[in-house]
Amino acid sequence: MTISIWRYSHLALALSSFVFILLASITGIVLAFEPISEQIQPYHSEEFNEVTLAETLQVLQDTYPEVITLEVDANQFVLASVMTNEGKSLNGYINPKTGLYLGDKIESSKFFQWTTNLHRSLFLKGIGRFFVGLCSLLLCLIAVSGTVLILKRQGGFKKFFSTIVNENFKQYWHVVLGRLSLIPIIIITVTGVYLSLLRFNMLPEFKATHHINFETVLATPKQDIQDFKLFKNTKLSEVKSIEFPFSNDVEDYFTLKLKDREVIVNQFTGTILSEIKYPLVKFFSNLSLNLHTGKGSILWSVILAIACVNILFFIYSGFAMTLKRRQSKLKNKYKKDSCQYVILVGSENGSTLPFANTLYEQLLKAGKRVYITELNNYTTFNKVEHLFVLTSTYGEGEAPTNANRFLELLKTTEQNPKVSFSVVGFGSFAYPNFCQFAFDVDQAMQHHFQQKLPVFTINDKSVEAFQEWIKTTQLPLDIPKDKLALKPKLTNTLSVVSKTQLSDHPDQTFTITLKTKNAKRFTSGDLLAIYPKNDYRERLYSIGKVNGHIQLSVKHYENGLGSNFLYNFQLGQTFKARIINNAAFHFPKKAPRVIMIANGTGIAPFLGMIQQNKKHVETHLYYGLRQKASLELYQDILKENLQTKHLSNMQLAFSQEGKKTYVQHLIKHDAKFIAETLKNKGVILICGSLLMQKEVLQTLNDICKQEGQQSLSTFKNQGQIQTDCY
Ligand SMILES: Cc1cc2nc3c(=O)[nH]c(=O)nc-3n(C[C@H](O)[C@H](O)[C@H](O)COP(=O)(O)O)c2cc1C
């Protein structure tokens, strides 16, 4: 079933029952405090687990002239109904070892009784109980459909508990808390349904019926109650209750209710007159009651209360997300067949829509006739000249819900082949298949239309990147920054540990080492996002994790926003930034061989990866620099890692010294080695300038063809070629 069906079911179930669920959760939180308030009463006995029934009965008989009943409640408090020597009737807690009267029975407070009624039946008696039972079932189905959504989102059972990218507060916590409270919520709802079914007699109710032949019951040989074998062998912790004989008549007896059976005992001889084991339904009824109410366990009551609080959060965050998805509705001024531009949008959670809407408004403002719609609404557009596709990627490189039929529609819809198109991918570096769906769309569209611009990718809703793309369209558009810009959350405080001087390096490059509080939170290949002007303008740097610190390699530009911001820091100074998990560019966990290709400052993540290569995975570095002196910045660390075999081999290409070479030349020279690496499931990592990336990919493509390998895109799709270029 597709994700949308599960999502609609999840939403429809929530919509149809949320008022009841809201009430049940609020009252549930209150009621969770009832067992807690009982448990903290001082009626616990240290010896409870050791003492036998015979011992307790003995002390009771010694202390009180008459004992009517004895009960052990879910809190393991021993409750007795007795008459005192003064003729007073007492009903309360006793110490099972000494018989001491500890206090009167706790009666449920009026407030808890009121809340219980509201929780169980909304004060509507039978009909209310029916609705509450039904909503329990609906909540259970909501939990199940939510689980399926998490499974789809995470990409299967194995990844159910793997890390979730925190892109959006409500969405993140909806999923994180959903996973954590899944089991308690399923238990609450299943037991709720069970208790409702019991209430409506839809489950067989058990009542023990004993058949005793009193003709054969004898009053001899008489024994003292403390000598009854059964009582001596039964721990009080196994007992639920005991009713004492009404009179001295031999036909009156002890009725002993244990956890698993009911026993009738001759009051004179201690002989067992009848014994009935409880069926499973009785066990489930008790279990359901205790699990649903939290009776007898402070820990479970607290878990139930937390689960109810979480349900309230789910109601809030779920509806907030739904509203957000619906807010940025696509509205059109012109009819579809009268427009020269068509914007097709793919979005899962609505964050791509403001970008698409802004583009739409700006095109209108520029006097163009433009139509905007979702990718799944793709159809014929009689006058279209250019198709803009703005789409996010979801799942594991898949289409967002409102675009999942597009590739099929593209094949079956007749459209003028002279139409040009350009695709913008919205994605996140935190996912291995960065903007994959945008690339798939671009590939597919190339079979039908003219590609005007190569796919443009945008990480993490970057307004700046979007503006950059707008420039490449050469349309007279001006994107208002403040309309789209989100205030970034700067979650990491960094302090400057060391920094090299520009004068030390011939290429206007410096390295800066930064200390962060939590070194476990990042690894080499992740990105550091800085905001030099404390506004929407973001600069990204590839991180090398060297000696637990963040090491950046930065090219300095005279008016460079990011490079000046970083270079002007003094040692010890601190600033706030954001570390972005760049899962698509980490040192591979499993690879027989790793080839690293870099130029210039692209060496930064590799310096860290090499140092982290504790397993000595065969690692080769191809590095392009301008001149020999350019290497000085990195010489020591590279030498050291070559010695320790963290790095197996290094080849350098100098573009401005000696026989001018570039990394692609080195790769071409080692074509056989590269081809063999790819064939044997090795991984190639590329970091540096986009120009270098283009050349290297071209060379790799040639190698694949030359050596009769699978296509380059197959290796890319298998994650064997990973790039982080700028
Ligand atoms: C569950 C989930 C899976 C995602 N998978 C990918 C992915 O495979 N590749 C990618 O580049 N981005 C991925 N993203 C990031 C989104 O594409 C990105 O946040 C985008 O801006 C969301 O836009 P939307 O709200 O319009 O769907 C994923 C996001 C989520 C929540």
UniProtKB/TrEMBL annotation:
Matching SUPFAM superfamilies: Ferredoxin reductase-like, C-terminal NADP-linked domain (SSF52343), Flavoproteins (SSF52218), Riboflavin synthase domain-like (SSF63380)
Keyword check for Transferase: no
Lineage top rank: taxon: Bacteria
Gene3D superfamilies per the UniProt record, alphabetical: 3.40.50.360, Nucleotide-binding domain of ferredoxin-NADP reductase (FNR) module, Translation factors
TM ranges: 130-151, 172-197, 298-323
Keywords: Flavoprotein, Membrane, Transmembrane, Transmembrane helix
Flavodoxin-like domain: residues covered: 341-474
PANTHER family named among the record's database cross-references: NITRIC OXIDE SYNTHASE-RELATED
The protein's name in its UniProt record: PepSY domain-containing protein
